[in-house]
Amino acid sequence: MATVKKRKLEGRASGSSTPPAVVEKALEKAVEDGPWQTKSETRFTRVLPSRNSKRRSVDEVDAKQAQGNDIDGDDGGSGSEPSGRRAVKQHSSFKPTKTKLQRKAGGRLVLATSEAERLLVLGSYGVRVRAGEATIAGAILSPSDDVQWVHAPHCHAVPVLRTAEDTVLELQPHPAARGLRQLARLNPAFGRLWNETLPQDTDSGRAGKYPASFQIIYTSEDAPKRAVMQELVAPGAWNKKLSGLAAARRKATPVIFLCGPKSSGKSTFGRLLANRFITDRGGARNRPWSSVMVLDLDPGQPEYSPPGVVSLSRISTPNLSPSFCHPTLTPTQGQIRAHAIASVTPALDPSHFIECALDLFAHYQRGPDAKSPLIINTPGWVQGTGLDILSELITALRPTEVLYMSQDGPSETVSTLQSAAAATNPPIPFTPLPSQPTDTAPPRTSLHLRTMQTMSYFHLSQTLAQTATAAATQTWDPAPLTALPPYRVRYTTGFRGILCYDHQPAASLLAEAINGTILALVKVESTRAFRDLLLPPNSSPPAFQPLTTETSPTTQSKTKTKTKTNNKTSNKQPEPPIPLIPNPQGRTLDPRHSRLLGLVLVRGVDAARHELQLLTPLSRDTVSALDGDELVLVAGRFDTPSWAYAEDLCRRRGGGAGEEGVEDGEEGEAEVPWVEMLHGSQKRAVGSKVWRVRRDLGRS
């Protein structure tokens, strides 16, 4: 990629005062006739490297980055329109012509660039470099790489695709785009994120036989209406640090500890760094890392797991999509081990959170990937108990460098973390970096993003291919969860018991407490995982009884009749209760002897059959191999899946209208779900809210 310099249009090269409109027409004609012959830029600040210079690769750009230049910091240009007209922002410098852009079969596009160009592509697509080099979200792509799949909705910063000189690349429609977009029919939070307003004939494909899953955004006028296009911008200090870490990666295995306030860019920087490690060749003798390990310790906004979970994953391909587009990884796709925090914050049990982090780090050290770089992402809780957690993790994990993603404090937090890093032997370097710049408020809140990620997790297709290319093979089932057949799990043989991490309900109220909630399915590897908990009697396999279709009404009628007959003949045997593991002290499973298999949604409790009806995206092979004596269902403070209760209603009303919510329809009260939305203290008596249990009062 060529080094970029911005120049203002000053007329002709000789300095004459030619009107800007004349110059713009000349430039447009030059673009239509062939490659640009001028070094001047339009008032939209085009990216125009010198044609007389030699072809510069990405490595030369890295040298400029190391000096503090910000190649990702350009805003794509902005123009000041005449009074009364909306200002138009230039997002892409690439100008399509018959020779530069060719449409191929299947909706593919082939782009040829003689100059270094930038393209902002909205939607879902695959990119493959045929010649030259290109970069996107920190990943350096070359002709030897396979197709890299991208999901780029405008609810997140859209990554910019940059090409070097004399580059030929191919854009392909994403095979999983349709299923992901159809989730908007079930929840308006997924609506208006892509290129839904694409015209019938555009540069990204022809409508009809090949529906376009992506669109090149040349100017702000090409963007969907009411959409705020924010480009993925990396400050100059980020680029300098990325180049430094990539250049020194062979001296020692890097273990990078990312911390900082909320929304400071920890996840974004970690994604850029992982992509750089995987794809940066750094010279003929220096091959890129084959994989990068990611220790995700942020249960509120995790990258490779649903909310409420911390995980250790192996990443072997660039991550070019937001987290709700890859809500989990199977063991064959890269997940090494995971634990359920059962909450979106470590505040539920800080000690258990630290135990889980130490266990995941120990598996990294003992595993075959101990020589691969490790990126540790932490929560944005940097004060009070959260600061104590970060300090303890720095002391215990001993990373090679601590990066604090803010230069605005708080001063107490910075000084405490610096002291923790300096107290180790040898001292750990501590580097503050600027936060990720944001021009506007994000269109989706943290709660919306958690809802989207959880919903995306439960709608993953159970028949997805078990391969390492997770981003390309993960597909979604757009049917409402109420239309999916559940797994039937018997009380006595399906699992060892239910363990509550937070509130301890009475055994008689357990069915009502867990019905319609999310539970964690945990596999116990040793009885030592229970610590000193009192266990129900042992159960026996099989654990789950999968169903391919729902039980027919005739079968249900026969079953009910048989049950009534049995009750008449014998009323001596009491119904077995749901096994509850008593936990009055609020203890947790030992993460050294247990691990998370996945999350389940309790669709219903069948008291007549003594069964739980569970929904989970776990594959049928995984479920069929489970042993009920090794399974525990963990209840905690997962977000209430209210989105699941209204999916069918949203689908019948024509969901996906947008973030504003579902429009009021003409259906009667019988068509409305039983859920009632309350805001604040509406219809609640004083003191009726759930009391928050503080378990960190003894921490200094």
From TrEMBL:
Record-annotated Clp1 P-loop domain positions: 260-459
Disordered: annotated segments: 1-106, 533-589
GO molecular function: ATP binding; polynucleotide 5'-hydroxyl-kinase activity
InterPro entries in alphabetical order: Clp1/Grc3, CLP1_P, P-loop_NTPase
Basic residues bias spans: 97-106
Composition bias, Low complexity: 545-558
The keyword Kinase is assigned to this record: yes
Tree of life domain: Eukaryota
Localization terms from the record: Nucleus, Nucleolus
GO biological process per UniProt: cleavage in ITS2 between 5.8S rRNA and LSU-rRNA of tricistronic rRNA transcript (SSU-rRNA, 5.8S rRNA, LSU-rRNA)
Keywords associated with the record: ATP-binding, Kinase, Nucleotide-binding, Nucleus, rRNA processing, Transferase
One cellular component term from this protein's GO annotations in UniProt: nucleolus
Family in the record: Belongs to the Clp1 family. NOL9/GRC3 subfamily.
Described purpose of this protein according to its UniProt entry: Polynucleotide 5'-kinase involved in rRNA processing.
Designated name of the protein: Polynucleotide 5'-hydroxyl-kinase GRC3
